[in-house]
């Protein structure tokens, strides 16, 4: 539990002065995500510790180097959870890394994404200034929402120092059921159920079987299971961990893994199977050697976006930005980091 | 700055791109727009425009850019912070005619609408599919989705279902450069910075919303409403914290104080316990058995926290009755006083009791009555300061009282505005909440989208100069930091 913000601010100011590009590093578990860059590491794992946590307030404020696992353990002791069920991708994963990567796990469909839980962030911008945005309360419209802007910005706008996240009570009980479904039927069913008030907190299709996680009292779960069918599986938390951490066999190592976001009811895409689906069909994973341009075109055609999640370094990892949007991105980058020293090129080659 | 164009030239230019009846310049035509929900501030625009298509908006904004005319967008004009207050030299862009629901997509659970569509109209259009749009600001019959986005509006149910920002999936935004930005989509999340989040609550300062795609939720299976009465405000505050920390997430959790109870009883007789110091109205929703179980747990918790009475609505009619008083609270209080000033600070729930007690003390100090009726579940206070604008000095006293309340909220770790926005009203308090570097960041964000500063100038973010005058900023040796930078 240390507060190293003075040191970090000094390092950033020094880098800004010398125009030294910095590569922000928490637990170094997600460095592969985004474009690959060469820069001086700025180690942030040391800036750690929970600053404030009171269960009745449904939020936690912690320094960004705090291990994600420690946060989850502490709040779990109070029967609370991070609503977005973030993947760790390794034991040293930090809170800051989770927010900067902006990745949500299977619970995204009920708990929201990282940005939906963001209440406030304290950052050091590229000039070494310490800035606070947002706060500790859910309702807060004072000033532009710069704290949500940090989620998923891959450290290109500021060095996260501490964040305040909204928490949710843990469900009383969860039960997963599984049933054999073709991809097309699975998509149809998931979206039909999502239009009903049934308490479904996660869905995963592995190409052949559809897994559905239900939450609530035993009677609620029973009622829903009667409606959707399927067989119960044992130890379902392990199953969802394998989905969240991508240790499930659908996430084939060694083959480029594409993360495609489409409108959830989109029919199966014209890409070589198998495809893993989450988020009621809104998130599709393809382990494929297909050309990047092909994958992108298919995603775009479906009204969605494709990102090469894992794989050999390529120039364009994320969905390309149209010129008008790129211009705004460049200006925002300049607003936060005029010297362009924070993870330059991590997200897009232009900034 | 260009020479100001004459009114006849403006009229001519706008008539070239808009139908005759869409360009308003006469005093009597402009008068309805002189203020929004914050009536203490009034200003006529030079011109008001009523575009009916996106092409007309594009054309109107082009003219504004060429003539360097400030643009203030207006939906239904229900803002409580002056967000839609016209600019004396500018154009008021009224979205009343852009009120079409373009698509309900039940499979993807979205609605695509024009910016002038009323909040409630979206839920009405989605109803046949068993879906609805969750954020429900109190003005939802009238307020528009464009205004909701600008203010990141909340409502009674946002504790469980989120604010506007949580329920917008995609936006088409026009910048003053004439570029159309497509943000988000029917898919979840997008590559790049989260500009979609940034647009929410940006108070019309960054872009003009041309179209919005909102998330629709399935209607809850069932709901239950209860009322709990307390002899002390402190007990009610503690009860709120207890309910939340026991893992219960109400769809709505509202508090009304003694004064408000009296006022609503007089106004519409909802049958509230008149002697109570405070009441809580709690709505839970979910599946039947589970809901019954949660209701029982809530009831016990309230009892444990000294509730003198817990009343459960037995049917939908009784539930409506319990809500009726809460929903009529503002007009009820309005009946008791010629004017009121509605505040909107948010604090961590644990400080509720303490802050309320301090507000009552301030009420004595300023000699003005105050009523508290608010979203207790998310700590969003709405103290209503009652005053009479015709009495010399009362408005100023009310504003000073309000300002002290907001500073108190910031001291308690909260914020100056939970859901009403900064507008023209809380500019000074922004200086308390943010330091010069943070304000500089806001100017830079503004300028990234609206380089020429045409959109809603003078709102939402104070200039450093104003903060220096307000005295809340640290000004070193009489010099403003970064004095060379432009200020909007």
Describe the structure.
The complex is a heterodimer of chains A (351) and B (488). Chain A has 351 residues and is of the alpha+beta class. Chain A is 28% helix and 24% strand. Chain A has 2 domains: 5-169 and 329-336, Uridine Diphospho-n-acetylenolpyruvylglucosamine Reductase, domain 3 (2-Layer Sandwich), CATH 3.30.465; 174-310, no CATH class. Chain A has 11 helices and 17 strands. In chain A, a hairpin with a 3-residue loop joins strand 11 and strand 12. Helix content of chain B is 35%, strand content 19%. Chain B has helices spanning 7-17, 27-30, 54-67, 119-126, 145-151, 158-161, 195-199, 233-245, 258-268, 288-304, 316-327, 329-334, 352-366, 394-411, 427-433, 436-449, 464-470, and strands at residues 23-24, 47-49, 71-74, 91-94, 101-105, 110-113, 131-132, 168-174, 180-184, 208-215, 217-218, 222-230, 252-257, 278-286, 307-312, 339-342, 370-375, 383-387. The chains are: A alpha+beta (351), B alpha+beta (488). The interface between A and B is large, with 81 and 94 residues.
